[in-house]
Structures are given as C-alpha cells and as structure tokens.
Write a structure and sequence with these properties.
The protein is mainly beta. The protein is built from no helices and 14 strands. The strands form 2 sheets. Strands 1-4-13-6-7-8-9 form a 7-stranded antiparallel β-sheet, with no helix packed on it.
Length: 179
C-alpha cells in the first residue's frame, strides 16, 4: 500500500486512537495516555498462507515508546495475536503473544539494525507454518518457532505504545508465498 488514499479502510481501537491517510502516509497515534492502540486494516487480505509483510515506520518525534506490527490476529480465538515491537531509543525489539487475558514475551533482544529518530525503520515479518522470522531494515534479527502452530491465520496492522507521538507508516508490502 502506498497510502495514496484510504482504500484499505484503516480503523483504530475505539476511541483510543486516531488514524488517517494523508500525503501518501498512514498517520497513527494513541489518544489515551498510558495506553496502547492498534490500527486495523479493514479491507486488507486475511493472511491464511505463508507471507512476508513489511512496512516503513517512523515516529514523528524522538520517543522511548514502542511501536510495531501485529499479525496473526484472530478475534474468535480469545483475541490472540503476535506483536513485533521496537524501541528506537533503547535499540531493542520484542515479540509478544497476546490474548484478551494478557501478553507474554516470546523473544527479545538488542539490535544495532534499529535506527534512532530522525531515521525510520523498515520492519518485516516472514511467517511460514510454525516458524516466523523478524527483520529490521532488511536484516533478519531473530526467529521464533512454535511447533504445531500456524503463524499465517489472521489479520494484521500497526501498534503504538502510549500517547505523545504520531507513527508514520509507508510502503506496506504483503507477499503471499505458497501454501
């Protein structure tokens, strides 16, 4: 998606977020202090086959708050999802598994691939069967395997942690790769 218009109907999480497509960019922010928000793609394809997903993410200001891509969202399965989140000031990344009952960290680390503001970062997720790989600026930085689990069975979108900054999203690419 080049975000030349809002043809994919981006929406947020109730009154907690604000999102709009403007000048070729999705602009997304949390409006509730000490809370997080999700931007959901209303008319993007359901990811039900192996895929590679990437987008350019840039916070509007320097921030120590996290942001990233969520995927494998399934509202019928207790709201389960995976989140690939970075903190550009700390140069750390995290992979969470979340449900309506809470979140757990599945992977985490530091990476010199993470660029601080004013640079943007390209985040990528490659999901195939029970393995998912995580990319920052074109380099694989981690992978996670969950035997018997399918990482390609849900929707995706973007995430911001806390209020106080806008996340600019551009150059969304989704490639479905086989079965």
């Amino acid at each position: 998606d080049d975000f030349s218009n809002d043809r994919h109907a981006w929406t947020g999480t109730e009154d907690d977020s604000q999102e709009r497509v403007s000048y070729g960019t999705l602009i997304f922010e949390s409006r509730k202090e000490n809370s997080y928000a999700f931007a959901n793609c209303g008319s993007c394809p359901y990811l039900d086959a192996p895929f590679y997903l990437q987008a350019d993410l840039l916070p509007g200001i320097a921030t120590d708050k996290g942001f990233g891509i969520y995927f494998n969202f399934n509202d019928k399965d207790n709201g389960s999802f995976f989140l690939f989140r970075i903190n550009t000031e700390a140069r750390k990344y995290y992979v969470y598994y979340g449900t309506n009952d809470g979140w757990t960290i599945r992977a985490a680390g530091e990476s010199d691939q993470i660029k601080s503001f004013p640079a943007g970062n390209t985040l990528g997720v490659y999901a195939r069967k029970d393995v998912v790989e995580f990319y920052i600026n074109g380099k694989i930085i981690d992978s996670y395997e969950q035997s018997g689990y399918s990482f390609h069975k849900g929707n995706f979108g973007f995430y911001v942690d806390n209020s106080g900054f806008k996340l600019l999203v551009d150059n969304l690419v989704i490639n479905k790769i086989g079965n």
